[in-house]
Specification:
Low-confidence stretches of chain C: none
Structural class of chain C: mainly alpha
Chains: A mainly alpha (226), B alpha/beta (246), C mainly alpha (220)
Shape of chain C: globular
CATH class of chain C: Mainly Alpha
CATH topology of chain C: MetI-like fold
Strand content of chain C: under 5%
Shape of chain A: elongated
Number of domains of chain C: 1
Oligomer: heterotrimer
CATH architecture of chain C: Orthogonal Bundle
Radius of gyration of chain C: 21 Å
Number of helices of chain C: 10
Number of strands of chain C: 0
Bound molecules: adenosine-5'-triphosphate, magnesium ion
Helix content of chain C: over 70%
Chain lengths: 226, 246, 220
Amino acid sequence: MSSWERFLDTFFNARVMAKYWPDILYGMWVTIELAVLVVITGIASGLLLALLRAAGIRPVNWLMIFVVDVLRALPPLVIIVLIYFGLPSVDIAPSGFVSTWAALALVLMAFSEEIFWSGITAVPRGQWEASRSTGLSFTQTLLFVVLPQALRMTIPPLTSRTIAITKGTALGSVVAVSEILGQASSAVSNSYNPSPLMLGAAAYLVLFIPVVVAGRWVETRFAWKK
Amino acid sequence: MAAPIIEARAIHKHFGALHVLKGVDLQVAERELVFVIGPSGSGKSTLLRCLNRLETPDSGSVVVDGIDLLARATDINRARQRIGMVFQSFNLYPHMTALGNVTLALRKVAGKTAAEAEALGLAALDRVGLRDRAGHTPGQLSGGQAQRVAIARAIALEPRVMLFDEPTSALDPELVGSVLAVMRELRQDGMTMVVVSHEMGFARAAADRVVFMDDGQIVEQGAPAAIFEAPREARTRAFIGQIQRH
Amino acid sequence: MLDTFFNIEIMKAAWPILLAGLGNTLLLSATVVPLGLLGGLILALLARLRSPWVRWPLMAWVDFFRAFPPLVLLIFLYAGLPFIGLELGGFGCVAIAFFLNTGAYYGEILRAGIDSVPTGQSEAARSTGLSATQTMAWVILPQAVRNVLPDLMSNTLEVVKLTALGSVVAMPELLFQARQAQSLTYNPTPIVVAALIYFALLWPLVRLLSRLENRALRAG
Ligand SMILES: Nc1ncnc2c1ncn2[C@@H]1O[C@H](COP(=O)(O)OP(=O)(O)OP(=O)(O)O)[C@@H](O)[C@H]1O
Ligand SMILES: [Mg+2]
């Protein structure tokens, strides 16, 4: 066997790949589920927090800023491990899936709250004044005048941050979530062959390359401009 | 003089340690056009913004069209429908069309249906000569057009009084005329107006009364001719002399 | 509750282990941040070559690593390379993975920074006789870095947090040490303490960033 053939046999072993691709496919499905859940709950709760912050209730805002800071300062993996290994001590035992989802959603919530809030404060004061001068209430002004402008500004930073956090679904493998990486890793140790890792890598690229390319497009389309 | 439609009494306003309004009284009669002039920082904008409670005075009273703006029970959002305001920087909503700008408060505050709001909005745009620009966004309008849309946004609510804060200061000179023309028409239709502006020609031609402010106080007021030709106070004289040299 | 999450006895016992982990986390950060910056600088400078032969592969490279979760890259190197006889160990794998992954992010930021410097700057510098390299080093880069400083700092924060991935490949950094201590004591206190250490370490940076970001948006 030439060394090239040996290389192929090691990393692209057809027999191993044939055996394990259904596992990887299942892992892809879990990854997608997890990612969609994280994105929806994370961004929605971030937006709600930002709107609440606009109400300007001092103690609420201080608490919020502190929680957001904590979630920005801690590595997501630490948060996952805290939830997964810590909560059982108080008789709550979230699954690996739930732990990963909760941790990543919290992190995305924190980052998106910051981004939405920056967007809201970036809308010029004159917009508030013009709207209030025609009789719109604070809440109406926030929802109909300020938020639409803020959202547009927040799309580029929010997109790239969301992609980065969504990739964190791979961290689930550490707490036994059978997403792509978890499936690929266990296939490698079962088969003593790294080919499943190649499949796993391909699966990530299939999922995330379109997202990254779309993100690039979104970033140029909604780039900061007056 | 009939009972004033705007009645502001003894207004004081601080920003931190800065005493910006030092006991200002201003009464405006129905259909009157009052013109406010004064050096930069004298408190003109602040006074104007107290008249629709964009700024809340520290003390004093503001009654507009019989509504006490500073009373706790007052629904300020309903009151503001009757008090139109036009800003120096237009402040059009950039994410909406001209018509969208005009109809937003009609729908959300005045409770009109979409169809009613559209009809009223188009009529208001028609009054400022921009019915054909209804579908344009603010970015596609010239400065003069943008300011006229802003005026339409205010008059669509059928306000009882209109406040203008330097409506032409951000405009290229050749665009000023179109905005002043709209204001003149409003005046002819009997609108009560308070105008902060440097357009002295307009003041002479259209104002009933000119108010000169300096350092947070009203120093002198009277008919345009009196203020411009024969000011009594030294500070007024200095200010008039300065602007006429330009 | 306190006994579970803030058990003083366990804290005392785990403290030296965690401290060693903190030391390694700092060491790891001090290695991978410069490595990532170096990778990013190389990418950003390559992006100056306007040739499509450079630009397209470069974009593909960057997008590839933006799409690839860093943990996957790390496992890939750690579990895959030994099969072709390359035993780099945890540290080597972490170093390569960060060079590739964070290099792509730093590269995008630095490229945007360089693009934000007006061409007149380069023309003025060249007109005084500075070489292309001197112009880049003394005129363009300093301005570029200043223009994107918040982004650079925010990415650096992410990189430091990312060092926690080292725990997965048995690097004895803070999270790894905490999990060791936790599995020995059957008590989550070490992980809670590790989280507190991370927070104490990174909070100042988070605060600073949040201020800078707000200011940038308001000015933008
Ligand atoms: N929101 C605010 N916070 C703090 N200071 C303010 C605020 N608004 C106005 N001021 C200050 O109050 C003073 C009066 O401002 P105002 O805008 O009323 O002046 P003005 O007569 O309209 O001046 P200009 O002709 O320049 O528009 C100024 O010194 C200004 O800096
Ligand atoms: Mg003013």
